[in-house]
Specification:
Blueprint lengths: L8 H6 L4 E2 L18 E10 L3 H13 L5 E4 L15 E3 L6 H7 L4 H22 L10 E5 L4 H14 L5 E4 H7 L7 E5 L3 E3 L2 H15 L2 E3 L6 E5 L2 E5 L3 E10 L16 E10 L4 H7 L6 E4 L5 E5 L5 E5 L3 E2 L13 H14 L8 E11 L6 E5 L4 E5 L5 H16 L10 H4 L10 H17 L7 H9 L6
Parallel strand pairs: 1-18, 2-3, 2-12, 3-9, 5-14, 12-20
Antiparallel strand pairs: 4-8, 5-7, 6-7, 10-11, 11-12, 13-16, 13-17, 13-18, 14-15, 15-16, 19-20
Helix pairs in contact: 2-7, 2-10, 4-10
Length: 472
């Protein structure tokens, strides 16, 4: 179906009492902030950024060598950025989906699929071993067709993934609607093993506690402003202190990078989310969804949605908004037009839920790169490592990203570091103003393709050919 983009009366009413706040972070049990970095500190390893990548890097480094002195510095509070603002989909995919991986690294895909499954299993074990109460559920995922042209693509995906040993089945419209009842569903694929759901903030807070328990020294509200090499070390400077470290792991996601080179590879793209109030028993009965599957639709501009432990529905995606000059900051965290569009699309998908209200709305930046999946590198003579570019699928991949970054800065040759995905970089984005012009043109072309039976025009085909893509 072609989603209407003008909010009707029901959609506006559903937004009437919405709180512009991140649902996951809007909790009384949020940990009190750690001290700020003041004065001079010394560390074997400095990790910059206390989102998922930074938390995993600090914890994995300490577990590998408890004697290693690890300092973790966060510019705001742990999980304030993308880590606390996402939909809570924990995917086994390291490549932003099977098709993207097959297109870019077909020879490495058997290893990438296995490593991705092992990574997801390791996250589940960590949650269990540490007793982190974060509603971690191996729910599986539905990718639903809402336009006739989506069906062929889903069928091809199921065939190709199954041939590679993945557990993906093709569902008819009736089978899809037996799981979750929406009149928009024309069919689906179902992957029962490759996706888990999680409360992302509670997972991050659990990892934060594990880091502290392991002896990681954490400083919050201490943005690092500069990195410099000095006498064989790397010096990271904040507003009121500094850390002199042997090694530095950068885990700053979409935030303005500390290495200038990263600005060529990453654009911050803003994504928006709504959360409903808890559904009544009658509302649950009207849509089914007893399996708590994560769901996304197969459009270029797609929605992602899932249920929560207390019976709400999170509904996000579709818009992916770039602000010129890699615009980034809290002034972009809310967008009324996007919220209205999302509310209208929600009610088109679940018309039986008319009358529902949304309790929370929020947005945040995604660290988008042209190949849609993480990339790695080092700087300062190998003493500084980085991983970035998850493009919205980093909740699970961040653990693998952190582990591989540690391998690189510690000089270890591993199966991960030998992957072509790790050894190569994405195509850089062009400079401004060409960057803004190109992204705007691409967004328009993707909308046109969605409205034209999926046919990709000349501009999209040209981007596909050179490997410089952009999607929502």
């Amino acid at each position: 179906m072609q989603f209407r983009n003008t909010a009707g009366t029901d959609a506006l009413a559903a937004l009437a009492d919405t709180r512009q706040s991140v649902f996951w972070l809007d909790r009384p049990e949020r940990p009190a902030a750690a001290p700020e970095l003041v004065g001079a500190e010394r560390a074997d390893l400095l990790v910059v950024g206390a989102g998922f990548t930074g938390l995993w890097a600090a914890l994995l480094a300490k577990r590998a060598d408890p004697a290693r002195d690890v300092v973790l510095v966060e510019g705001a509070r742990a999980a304030d950025g993308a880590t606390g603002r996402n939909g809570g989909f924990v995917s086994s995919s390291l490549t932003h989906g099977f098709a993207n991986g097959m297109e870019r690294w077909p020879n490495d895909m058997p290893a990438l699929l296995r490593l991705g499954r092992e990574n997801l299993d390791a996250i589940e074990r960590t949650v269990s071993d540490l007793g982190i109460e974060c509603d971690f559920v191996r729910s599986g995922e539905l990718d639903v067709a809402v336009e006739p042209h989506h069906l062929a693509g889903l069928a091809e995906h199921a065939k190709s993934a199954t041939a590679m040993g993945e557990e993906v089945s093709l569902l008819t419209a009736e089978q899809a609607r037996a799981r979750v009842d929406s009149p928009t569903y024309l069919g689906a694929t179902y992957d029962p093993a490759g996706t888990a759901l999680v409360d992302p903030a509670r997972l991050a807070w659990g990892l934060r506690k594990a880091c502290l328990d392991a002896g990681v020294r954490l400083f919050e509200r201490s943005p690092i402003l500069d990195l410099a090499s000095s006498a064989g070390h790397v010096v990271a400077t904040s507003r009121s202190g500094l850390v002199r470290a042997d090694r530095v792991a950068l885990a700053t996601n979409a935030y303005p990078p500390l290495l200038r080179r990263l600005s060529h590879y990453i654009v911050p793209v803003y994504d928006y989310v709504l959360m409903t109030e808890p559904l009544t028993d009658a509302q649950h009965s009207a849509i089914g969804w007893s399996g708590r599957e994560g769901i996304s639709d197969a459009g270029n501009q797609f929605h992602y949605y899932r249920t929560t432990q207390d019976g709400r529905i999170l509904w996000g995606g579709y818009d992916a908004i770039y602000h010129a000059g890699n615009g980034f900051g809290p002034q972009y965290d809310h967008n009324r037009e996007s919220y209205e569009r999302l509310a209208e699309h929600f009610l088109q998908t679940f018309p039986q839920l008319r009358g529902i209200r949304f309790s929370h709305s929020w947005g945040g930046a995604i660290d988008t790169c042209s190949r849609f999946s993480a990339f790695w590198g080092t700087a300062h003579d190998g003493k500084v490592g980085y991983v970035a570019g998850y493009t919205g699928l980093g909740v699970g991949a961040s653990r693998f990203g952190a582990a591989t970054m540690l391998d690189l800065i510690d000089g270890r040759s591993t199966e991960a570091t030998e992957l072509e995905m790790v050894r190569t970089k994405p195509m850089p984005f062009p400079p401004e103003p060409i960057r803004s012009w190109g992204i705007s043109l691409t967004t328009t072309a993707l909308q046109k393709a969605d409205n034209d039976g999926g046919r990709r025009g000349l501009w999209l085909r040209a981007l596909d050919k050179v490997g410089l893509g952009f999607d929502s």
